């Protein structure tokens, strides 16, 4: 028997929402215990700060330039390589339960397989697997679309449907409608009982799939929670856990608007343009909402609800780990816990996500608790690692040689391992192009530096950039790009960035949907 | 410079088909035959200038046919469901004068996001049309 693998992903979770990473609001004892028994990564970086490209990187072990998913709404080609397929071929039983999102959601003609499966209620495909997964049950944020969770809720608990926040408005734009006590955008008090909410559903379906396996089975399960991505509409019964009035404002948020705006004005101008509401470059941010209108109380309420969702995930994970332990698999179980990208969460006065390559979106929670039977020592890794490294790590756990099409490297088990293998840098890219509004960012995280180059586009002429010293400026408030004292540092980083950027896939894959 | 004008969206897709424009138009210019080449549409009922297509999920989509121009080889229709404030899809089949045809699917829509969804589905349908037409070479 080999090691069992539980890959746990959340969606849009900040690094600082976990207790083990210094978070003070949500209680996350389950993940904290995994971290203390395993490897906690202090600088895990996504290769894209939106869902579809980032998830495609996790599955393929490739950069967006290679797998081709350059933005949400661009489906991962059906013949794209998959680490799940490698595991399946080597004898692992495989499942993906929760949020997949390798294919677009807005799909009125039901063109995409994820939607076909959800619409039909089937949990497997003819031929044995889809993207390497034998068993598939999908959920997303709320009840829109045609995924398994929505179908289940409509069939068994139809009265709960209206309790969820309606993510899209009548224009099919992401809604700016406010709710809760402060009218914060994308907030709603949801009367759904906790046990029917998608977090518990994902855990319950995972346990049900595990229950279907024989004791001697080797398995790989990607358990993918849709939260704490907006909308923030956790079960109302749980919201009293955290009184939003008592929640401190995030350290990256300044209550003084002049100070906020001065920081934004030192960055490339799309920062301030979005803040003022004159440029919305990411479909998933409400089109009619300007971050400048965000109040401190709204931010407190969103932070509290986000933390409630984080706690529910932690508890759901605990339930699954208990079930695994009860099966006698605990000693041979590897658990990887991470997310696809971060959340601005009030930093710089902004929320949601977009073309902003700073820690809020780029510093991810990542915990790897190797199987206790492997004898791996607990550690903390400070070297930059990426989600592109997960696929080769999964291969390593399963004793499979990582194929050459994977572009990442097996995660280091400690900083000495990282140093000996010269693991020092990560890439992150952003490309958006909606009705002629295009933005293109190329970022390198190398040691203490984060450096972003802007390619020419709708608001940039190709000379703009950002340079931050993560040691002296951990909140990335001071852009050193134009500071003569850092000119050679900047030039070195830009040179290195251009050296390691993978060649762009051609032709560019078409956008099939806004999301 | 802002992007606050994106109320209405416009998308264009095209495909080159190794068949004569007449052959391609024979399929595209017949409103009942859309089920043959538009994946996800399982039925089409035509009554005068009204067409109702039904998607694979069972969703009926009422449409108004605006143009069937056999000389220009242009087909235009409007989806009339209330989600659209405005919609116009245009399919052109152009003779490339080398025994091939260029099929173009253009869509203008409000809300803008519907232009992406319909335009991408139309582009996918053109690919299917090409597949069918090039396999069915006489």
Walk me through the structure.
- The complex is a heterodimer of chains A (515) and B (138).
- An eight-stranded mixed β-sheet of chain A has the order 5-4-8-1-9-10-2-11, with helices on both faces. A four-stranded antiparallel β-sheet of chain A has the order 13-14-15-16, covered by helices on one side. In chain A, strands 3-12 form a two-stranded parallel ribbon.
- In chain A, helix 7 packs parallel to helix 10.
- Chain A has helices spanning 29-37, 51-60, 64-67, 83-89, 113-120, 148-156, 198-211, 257-265, 270-276, 296-326, 359-362, 390-397, 415-420, 487-500, and strands at residues 4-10, 39-41, 44-45, 93-98, 135-138, 178-179, 184-185, 219-224, 333-339, 366-369, 379-381, 385-386, 425-434, 437-446, 449-454, 465-469.
- Helix content of chain A is 27%, strand content 15%.
- Chain A is an alpha/beta fold.
- Chain A has one domain (4-423): Alkaline Phosphatase, subunit A.
- Chain A has 14 helices and 16 strands.
- The mean pLDDT of chain A is 97.
- In chain A, strand 6 (178-179) and strand 7 form a beta hairpin.
- By secondary structure, chain B is of the alpha+beta class.
- Chain B is built from three helices and seven strands; from the N terminus they run E-H-H-E-E-E-E-E-E-H.
- Chain B has a seven-stranded antiparallel β-sheet.
- In chain B, strand 5 (74-79) and strand 6 form a beta hairpin.
- The interface between A and B is medium-sized, with 31 and 29 residues.
């Amino acid at each position: 028997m080999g090691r069992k693998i539980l890959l746990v992903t959340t969606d849009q979770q900040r690094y600082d929402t976990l207790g083990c990473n210094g978070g003070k609001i949500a209680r996350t004892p389950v993940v904290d215990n995994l971290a203390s028994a395993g490897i906690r990564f202090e600088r895990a970086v996504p290769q894209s700060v939106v869902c579809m490209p980032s998830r495609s990187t996790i599955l393929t072990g490739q950069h967006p330039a290679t797998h081709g998913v350059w933005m949400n709404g661009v489906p991962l080609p059906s013949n794209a390589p998959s680490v799940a397929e490698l595991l399946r071929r080597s004898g692992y039983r495989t499942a993906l339960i929760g949020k997949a999102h390798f294919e677009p959601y807005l799909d009125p003609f039901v063109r995409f397989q994820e939607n076909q499966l959800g619409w039909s209620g089937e949990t497997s495909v003819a031929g044995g697997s889809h993207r390497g997964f034998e068993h598939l049950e999908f959920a997303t944020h709320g009840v829109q679309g045609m995924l398994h969770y929505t179908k289940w809720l409509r069939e068994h608990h139809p009265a709960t449907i209206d309790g969820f926040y309606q993510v899209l408005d009548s224009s099919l734009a992401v809604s700016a409608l406010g709710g809760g006590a402060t009218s914060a955008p994308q907030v709603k008090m949801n009367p759904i009982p906790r046990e029917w909410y998608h977090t518990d559903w994902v855990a319950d379906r995972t346990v049900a799939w595990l229950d279907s396996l024989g004791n001697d089975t080797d398995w790989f399960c990607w358990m993918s929670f849709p939260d704490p991505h907006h909308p923030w509409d956790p079960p109302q019964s749980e919201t009293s856990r955290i009184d939003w009035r008592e929640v401190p404002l995030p350290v990256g948020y300044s209550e003084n608007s002049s100070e906020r705006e001065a920081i934004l004005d030192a960055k490339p101008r799309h920062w301030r343009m979005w803040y003022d509401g004159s440029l919305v470059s990411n479909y998933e941010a409400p089109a009619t909402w300007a971050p400048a209108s965000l109040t401190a109380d709204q931010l407190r309420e969103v932070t509290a609800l986000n933390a409630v969702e984080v706690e529910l995930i932690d508890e759901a994970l605990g339930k699954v780990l208990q079930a695994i332990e009860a099966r006698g698999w605990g000693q041979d179980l590897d658990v990887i816990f991470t997310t696809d990208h971060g959340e601005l969460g009030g930093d710089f006065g902004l929320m949601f996500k977009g073309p902003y390559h700073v820690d809020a979106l780029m510093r991810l929670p990542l915990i790897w608790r190797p199987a206790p039977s492997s004898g791996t020592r607990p550690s903390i890794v400070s070297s930059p690692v990426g989600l592109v490294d997960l696929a080769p790590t999964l291969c390593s756990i399963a004793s499979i040689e990582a194929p050459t099409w994977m572009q990442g490297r097996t995660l280091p088990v400690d900083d000495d391992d990282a140093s000996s293998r010269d693991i020092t840098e990560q890439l992150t890219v952003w490309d958006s192009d909606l009705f002629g509004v295009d933005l293109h960012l190329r970022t390198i995280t190398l040691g203490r530096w984060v450096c972003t180059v802007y390619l020419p586009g709708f608001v940039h002429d190709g000379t703009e950039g950002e340079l931050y010293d993560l040691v002296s400026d951990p909140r990335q408030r001071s852009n050193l790009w134009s500071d003569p004292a850092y000119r050679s540092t900047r030039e070195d980083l830009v040179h290195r960035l251009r050296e390691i950027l993978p060649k762009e896939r051609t032709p560019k894959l078409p956008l099939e949907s806004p999301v | 410079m802002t992007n606050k004008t994106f109320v209405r969206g416009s998308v264009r897709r095209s495909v080159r088909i190794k068949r004569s424009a007449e052959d391609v138009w024979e399929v595209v210019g017949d409103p009942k035959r859309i089920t043959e080449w538009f994946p996800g549409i399982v039925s089409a009922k035509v009554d005068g200038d009204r067409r109702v297509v039904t998607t694979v999920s069972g969703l009926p989509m009422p449409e108004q046919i605006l143009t069937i121009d056999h000389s220009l080889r242009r087909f235009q229709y409007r989806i009339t469901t209330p989600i659209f404030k405005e919609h116009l899809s245009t399919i052109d089949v152009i003779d490339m004068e080398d025994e091939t045809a260029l099929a173009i699917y253009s869509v203008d829509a409000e809300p803008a996001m519907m232009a992406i969804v319909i335009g991408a589905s139309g582009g996918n349908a053109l690919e299917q049309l090409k597949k069918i037409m090039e396999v069915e070479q006489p």
